[in-house]
Design a protein that fits this description.
With 1042 residues, the chain is of the alpha+beta class. The protein is 54% helix and 6% strand. It has 34 helices and 11 strands. The strands form 4 sheets. A 4-stranded antiparallel sheet has the order 9-10-6-11. A hairpin with a 2-residue loop joins strand 1 (15-18) and strand 2 (21-26). The longest helix has 35 residues, at 822-856. The radius of gyration is 37 Å and the shape is globular. The protein starts with 14 loop residues before the first strand and ends in a 23-residue tail after the last helix. Residues 36-51 have a biased composition (Basic and acidic residues). Residues 26-35 have a biased composition (Polar residues). Belongs to the dispatched family. This is SSD domain-containing protein. GO terms for molecular function: transmembrane transporter activity.
């Protein structure tokens, strides 16, 4: 995450290393400096003079003289780009936060979208909509009375039972509205809602939260119809108890009324448990059904099925005492589908910021069907926490750097990074979709920007103390050449890890990868342009002020605040690492092994089990309803129908839309090679349909929708003058010979299709020939969101269809199977997450390995660093698994960041180890620790703080990225400091051990191959008499930019 190569803080031994000379130049050392534990670091040769040429030096001269031009150019360019992108392009729309979750380009997505285009984008076809197989499970409903006491019995007593009590007047039965009306969940503080106090409190809550609002009065259902008042009564447990007790209001309820209703529930629960309103109309209810249970339009059924949890009915059946219910649902007669604006107003004004309890009952959950409508507002309002995080980081930078001007520049860097990234993303890359996940990039940029500022300022002060401030170009040159390469390595590593995840099939993940990666690159560019220009301005202002005033040296505020921490970094940490190295290695390897078990064996990183996507924190009332109370209510328990599948010929299964744009589903692409007129094709299709009906996944007794069977029946019909279509069907009748001649087949199919008798056949407009054929059928597999169930269904049926189609005549070999259902689309998402996340993480690990190798040019360091990074990733993911995370879209996006954010600390430690002028592993490890631990700790602290301060956010993505940042910072710091350094102490490279030869080495330091081989052997642990270490040249960090 960080981009830090900083010197040791004041009061420590610090060194400046040149790429062409690996000997240290000792900084001014205080009298209380901390010497290395094993051996004091001797003064080396002075660093050679900087060359006065090269692009880096030229850039330093320009910055030192024309710093104001650089600032002006940056601000003007940023302003121009901002004007372009914010005026010529629409602002992002976050009203549907789940947009972009559907995978694109997958086999299933290609089939589903092609099938949808066939149904809705078939202008070239005569028949627009093929028939669907009707679910027999839902088509056998009969209006059979329940027992002998159904309400059709016209007696005066029955009519009396049907008449509502005065004041209690419902808008028909809740059956008629089911789960389409606004709902609240009220819970008793004492644990039992079935008490007079709790019920009266809930009645007051109904009015306080909803019914008193003018928007409810204006938009309620049945307003003025079937009731004496403007709006009907609320469907609540209090009103139903009052109704069953002939009370006019729930405010009049007494203890005996509740007891009588509970007794009635005990009588009816065995008959009504888990029985829907539609089931009551069927004939499978017992003849012993008590008439009392049918009073007031099955009021007790409403109580048990809609208002009280399923557990209440189960407790009755189990004879559990005492019989209580902790909560109840309240249904309001206002549509959640068509009155969302009114419900949004009610929620904002009466619920969102109002007390949720009166001391007796508490509002626990809300279902107003406005979760997506509320999301943009909360996304923007929760940006306040980003501001708080930014302010805290601002203060931290100010304290550490001691300059308000530089601190302001760091904040401006972060803001402009996002603006420039948005411009490139929208205007240059032309990405049409901007998901809400891109907004959380701000959290990353806040932390990264702070880290880069720590780097630059620390090195600037370090070199200024060595060189003085008279030669500004040289001072700036040395700072730039030692920061540019390392910052580039760390920033580009994180950006590359993000760009790599763009291979995902999920548009949400792809778009986030591109935007976040671009923002990090822009932050690097601004850090190397605007930040040094502002530092030069600060330098010149300081000189100008001190020229007219007496400037007394003062103790650095950074040193005063962090002096005690320096003792920890310089003494305790190296001591613990070097003395307990074997313990750390065994401990952290064991921790990694345990994490592997957690991630892959138990409890494992689970795939999502519901298509309801969580977008707010778990405590939010919308999410409470979806993920806590939904599964406890009988009326909301999923009752999945069986899967309906279709085999399609004549359409190419291709997702030819823009895979970056969730709204672009492509266009219908016909398969020109498809034809069905040959007798061989007709015979094969008939055999295929018969074979399909014999398969175990086919639901017996259901028609396949296979047109060839119906077509043969039509052709055999002796009546050629069909009165239904009004014209003579000859010669398409009285035909007993099958298969038919191509000309006869084509003309007769056109006649029957035009007449509407073959709805699964599509004809071309231009020639009335068969263009598309579908064979719909119903399966025995239930439609389920469970991955294993859906996977078994898809793989079984698809494998059988593929096998049959492969053996078909050539013109029929491009058919394919599809099931256009929510369950299959969700299965496609699950499969993309299951396959895509490991692939993305492996690619990011490979990219990180390459950059590490190019940075250190040492095989051993690369090996130990990758072991450290892999361990860090496993531990972080294991912790998330134990915290209950599922591998959903946002979670997958965040988890793929683990590699990019875990690598930076290890890179810095590895580079410092490589640059060490000392020879033994122990000395090099100590040098790396004493040099790098303080700045790395500050970087980790800043990112940790940025994550911690967004945890209170109500938007789940903010919370998750904050928690993830905190975990990654802690785990990567601990693993990098203790595990990686322990590995280097035990088995790190010495001298040339593990180095990859570089051509320039032999040119600059001519020696025989034999001598070089001796040095390499000595570096790997053998004795050597050489005291002078020949230099090695790296590509990024080891070779500063000239």
């Amino acid at each position: 995450m960080t981009a830090i190569v900083m010197s040791a803080m004041q009061g420590q031994s610090a060194f400046v290393l040149d790429a062409t000379n690996r000997h240290p130049t000792e900084q001014s050392v205080r009298s209380n400096q901390i010497q290395p534990h094993d051996e004091q670091i001797n003064r080396g040769q002075s660093e050679p003079e900087d060359r006065s040429g090269g692009p880096c030096f030229m850039y330093a001269r320009i910055l030192s003289r024309f710093w104001y031009v650089i600032c002006l150019l940056v601000f003007l360019a940023s302003a121009a780009f901002a004007v372009v992108v914010f005026t010529l392009y629409d602002l992002p729309d976050f009203t549907d936060p789940s947009k972009g979750y559907q995978p694109r380009g997958t086999d299933i997505a290609s089939r589903v979208f092609s099938f949808q285009n066939l149904l809705h984008d078939s202008e070239d076809l005569l028949v627009d909509h093929p028939s669907r197989v009707v679910n027999s499970q839902s088509s056998n409903m009969t209006q059979t009375p329940v027992g002998w006491c159904w309400l059709t019995k016209e007696t005066e007593e029955d009519k009396k039972n049907l008449e509502p009590a005065p004041g209690i007047q419902f808008c028909n039965s809740i059956w008629d509205w089911d789960d389409t009306v606004a709902t609240l969940v009220l819970e008793s503080v004492d644990g039992n809602i079935l008490t007079p106090e709790a019920l009266k409190s809930s009645c007051k809550a109904e009015e306080r939260y909803v019914t008193s609002h003018p928007a409810y009065q204006d938009h309620c259902l049945c307003r003025g119809n079937h009731t004496d008042s403007d709006c009907p009564s609320v469907w609540s447990i209090g009103n139903y108890i009052a109704l069953l007790s002939n009370k006019s209001s729930c405010a009049d309820i007494e203890e005996e009324d509740i007891s009588r209703t509970v007794d009635l529930c005990k009588l009816c629960a065995p008959f009504l448990y888990n029985v829907s309103g539609a089931d009551l109309l069927k004939s499978n209810i017992s003849d012993d059904f008590p008439c009392e249970c049918a009073e007031h339009n099955f009021a007790i059924h409403t109580v048990l099925y809609y208002l009280l949890p399923t557990e209440f009915s189960l407790n009755i059946i189990r004879n559990t005492n005492p019989l209580i219910s902790p909560f109840t649902l309240v249904f309001f007669p206002i549509s959640g589908r068509s009155e969302r604006v009114a419900l949004d107003t009610i929620y904002v004004e009466n619920i969102e910021n109002k007390p949720d309890s009166d001391g007796v009952t508490k509002l626990k959950a809300v279902e107003f069907f406005i979760k997506f409508e509320v999301f943009p507002r909360l996304l923007y309002s929760d940006s306040l926490y980003l501001g708080i995080a930014g302010a805290a980081i601002f203060l931290l930078i100010w304290v550490y750097c001691g300059s308000i001007l530089v601190t302001s520049a760091a904040v401006v860097n972060a803001v402009l990074s996002l603006v420039l990234a948005y411009f490139l993303y929208t205007s240059i890359f032309q990405r049409p979709f901007f998901p809400f996940g891109n907004v959380v990039t701000a959290v990353l940029i806040i932390g990264i920007g702070a880290d880069d500022t720590f780097v630059f300022m620390d090195l600037w002060k370090k070199f200024k103390s060595e060189l003085g401030d008279q030669d500004l170009p040289r001072l700036l040159h040395k700072t730039l050449r030692h920061t540019a390469a390392t910052m580039s390595v760390t920033s580009l590593t994180t950006a590359s890890a993000l760009y790599t995840t763009a291979v995902s099939d999920i548009p949400f993940v792809k778009c986030f990868a591109v935007f976040a990666g671009t923002a990090i690159v822009m932050n690097l560019v601004l850090t190397m342009t605007l930040l040094p220009a502002v530092i030069v301005m600060q330098h010149k202002l300081t000189i100008w002020c001190c020229s007219s005033l007496t400037c007394k040296p003062k103790r650095d505020i950074k040193e005063m605040i962090f002096e005690r921490l320096n003792v920890f970094h310089q003494n305790l940490v190296p001591f613990l690492v070097l003395k307990l190295r074997w313990i750390w290695i065994i401990l952290f390897l064991s921790l990694m092994a345990g994490s592997v078990v957690v991630v892959f064996l138990y409890p494992t990183l689970r795939l999502p089990a519901t298509p309801i996507f969580q977008i707010f924190a778990s405590s939010h009332p919308f999410e409470q309803f979806d993920f806590i109370y939904r599964d406890q209510m009988s009326y909301l328990k999923s009752k999945f129908p069986d899967h309906v599948g279709s085999i399609v010929w004549g359409v190419q299964a291709a997702d030819n839309g823009d895979t970056w744009n969730p709204d672009d589903l492509g266009t219908l692409s016909l398969d020109e090679s498809f034809q069905l007129s040959d007798p061989e094709d007709q015979t094969w299709l008939l055999d295929f349909c018969r074979d399909l009906q014999s398969q175990p996944f086919y639901r017996a007794g259901q028609a396949t929708g296979c047109f060839i069977e119906d077509f043969i029946s039509f052709m055999k019909s002796p009546d050629c003058a069909n009165p239904l279509i009004g014209f003579n069907l000859s010669p398409c009748c009285n035909q007993s010979g099958f298969p038919y001649e191509p000309a006869l087949f084509t003309s007769c199919v056109a006649k029957y299709t035009n007449a509407g008798f073959l709805p699964t056949v599509f004809l071309r407009n231009k020639d009335s020939e068969i263009a598309v054929l579908t064979v719909p059928f119903q399966t025995t597999y239930p439609s389920s969101f469970n991955y294993d169930t859906s996977n078994e269904f898809w793989t079984t049926v698809d494998a059988w269809v593929r096998e049959k189609v492969d053996s078909a005549p050539v013109s029929l070999q491009r058919g394919w199977f599809v099931s256009d259902s929510i369950a299959i689309r969700f299965y496609d998402l699950q499969e993309s997450l299951r396959k895509g996340v490991p692939v993305a993480m492996l690619l990011t690990l490979a990219t990180a390995s390459l950059i590490l190798f190019l940075t250190t040019r040492n095989i051993l360091l690369t090996l130990w660093a990758m072991l450290t990074i892999t361990s860090t990733v496993f531990v972080v993911v294991a912790i998330l698994v134990l915290l209950g995370w599922e591998l959903n879209v946002v979670e997958a996006t965040i988890i793929t960041l683990a590699v990019g954010l875990s690598i930076d600390f290890t890179i810095h430690y590895g580079v410092a180890y490589k640059l060490s002028p000392l020879k033994t592993r122990r000395q090099r490890a100590r040098y790396s620790l004493t040099t790098m631990t303080p700045p790395i700790s500050m970087a980790a602290l800043s990112s940790f703080l940025a994550g911690a301060l967004v945890l209170p956010a109500r938007v789940l993505a903010y919370y998750q990225i904050g928690l993830f940042l905190m975990l990654v910072m802690v785990v990567s710091w601990v693993y990098g400091t203790f595990f990686f350094q322990s590995l280097c102490t035990v088995a790190g490279p010495q001298n040339f051990c593990g180095d990859v030869p570089y051509p320039e080495v032999s040119q600059k330091f001519p020696q025989s191959d034999q001598d070089l081989g001796k040095d390499v052997e000595a570096g790997c642990g053998l004795q050597t008499s050489n005291n002078t270490l020949p230099p090695t040249k790296g590509i990024f960090t080891i070779t500063p930019v000239e």
